[in-house]
Amino acid sequence: MSFSELSGFFFNTPHDDDHTDELADLRKKFTAIDTLIAKMKHRDELEPVYKEYQGKSGWAQSRFKKKNAATIEDYEQTVKYIKEHIKKYAVDGKPPTMLDLLEKSNKLKSKWNRLNVEHTAFLTKRETAKKYTRQVRQYLNEQQMKREREQSRQRTQAKRRNKNALE
Fold it and tell me: Which residues, other chains included, contact 6 with Cβ-Cβ below 8 Å and sequence gap of 6+?
């Protein structure tokens, strides 16, 4: 690494390769989309039982509901979740299909992967710089202390000379 790169780490300036916040935001986005996709798949798995429940009426429906209460409740909760969260991804007021969501998720993941390569290299540089930063700071502090001691010694000698000259 060059001295300018090291000094950049030394003075804790922001770096173009530091994508910590952006990576966290991308992860949050594609995780939300992946959760929505999983819920849509789960809904599709439960749909035959729910359609059978809807096809019945009266006593047969209530008996079927008692028998399959967990599945029906799960289906209704899943549909509710999908309705609440799919609005964010609507295009021209139309809800996206599962393929649209998969495509969006894959784009976000590929962007995350590209940024993660740069970010990993940045983290490696930062860790390396941390090792040397301590040594550089210690050296600079020692130099500053030497200058201050020399200035103090010179002031003391000047006072002694002035005192001796007055006597």
Answer: 129, 132, 133, 136
Give me the helices (H) in 68-97, please: 69-85
Cα(30)–Cα(25) distance, rounded to whole angstroms?
Answer: 9
Q: Which residues contact 68 (CB under 8 A, 6 or more apart)?
A: 49, 53
Mean pLDDT by runs of 10 across the 167 residues of the chain is 56 66 91 94 94 91 92 94 89 86 94 91 80 77 91 89 74
Task: Indicate the SS3 state at residue 19.
Answer: coil
Tokens 């964010």, located at residue? 88
Q: Report the amino acid identity of residue 65.
A: K
Query: Would the pTM of this model clear 0.70, i.e. be above it?
Result: no
At 94, is the secondary structure helix, strand, or coil? strand
Q: For residue 94, list its beta bridge partners.
A: 91
Q: Rounded CA gap, 34 and 45, in Å?
A: 17
Give counts: helices (H), strands (E), the chain: 5, 0
Helix, strand, coil shares of the chain, percent, nearest 5, are 85, 0, 15
Strand partners, 91: 94
State the Cα–Cα distance between residues 147 and 159, nearest whole angstrom: 18
